[in-house]
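Hi everyone,

Forwarding the result from last night's run.
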Amino acid sequence: MGTNTAALENGFNKATEIIRTRVIAGLRKEADKLALKAYDTYKSPLMGFTGNTWTGTAVGVYDRGALVYYVSTKTIANMPSAVRSKLKIGKPYFLSKPYGYIMDYSSGNRTFTPYVDTDGGNSEQDAIKFLESNSPNSKFAITVVNGSEYANYVENLMGGDVLIGTHHYAKNLRVVDLTLK
């Protein structure tokens, strides 16, 4: 009579793959919820200007340190692209209507002089680059990041919400949804 070692090993490997697939599917759902929450709770007391900070939050799902999925506030909410690259410090910028990111602000043309220096890039792309270069040390992970240098300024100096509402919301998420469909 032969051993069943090979059959048992194959069965365990198949079960492990089924569980991994379910966990990643559940984490993707939670990542989508986090990106939508970041979009919904975003609040800049001085209103948006280019749209980079609002569209620049991205959420990544990792399997054994490798990024397997990401979503951004721009894509989850089907937002228009930022109206221009991130602003560089040193000169005032003028933006005329329509500028796409009105939020609570409804008057006409605006001038803004940056207080924080940036790399002049695109926040969504910068957030995704970070997620691609990140490698968490756990089997599974979710990372939320904003690619705008203004995120910290908006939250800490202006009392706004870029990621803090998402952080509090994340505490209430289910660990993972493994329900069958």
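Strands lie at 57-63, 66-72, 93-95, 110-112, 140-146.

Cheers,
N.
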